[in-house]
Amino acid sequence: MMKKIRLKIAGVTSNQSRAGSYAVVLKEAGGKRRLPIVIGGIEAQAIAMVLEKIKPSRPMTHDLFRNFALKFKVNIQEVIINKFSEGVYYAWLVCEHNGNIIKVDSRSSDAIALALRVPCPIYTYENVMKDNSFVLEEDKTETKTTRQPEPTDILDENDFTGYSLDELKNLLKEAVLQEEYEKASLIRDEIKRRTEEKS
Question: Model pTM?
């Protein structure tokens, strides 16, 4: 049996090499290796919403899938990014239903978005990690240039630095009501940054 590597989400960032696409960066639990996976804008938003703790007014697609699984007693136990072929990552949802273990084929981006919502652990195999990851070099003298990507990096085309804190809170409420979750994520990041500056 191939060795499984536990993964955590380091963040979501815009993908400089492909316009209109993003990357979710997974980090090895207890290690320095990072596994970047190119994903679409919708999936980036679905992942960033959970990371930013933004709750939609109605269930989004991945929320619906989770609710459906819960209703019919399908236990999503884990996600495994099981292979990389011709530039594409493949994943399984490992599910349990009535004592039976079932592997469901999934896009890796959808599997990650679901794993955050269930929640359940995310794994990959050692051979996938070995062939496709990079090692994060930590340099304490250059902390400003080696920061981890933030979920709101995908939203850097907007700038809310000119608003007051009260204005930002009102804008956040409005963005959530209008289901503009990318905008809401950026506003929340600006509020968080200012709050941390005051503390």
Answer: 0.69
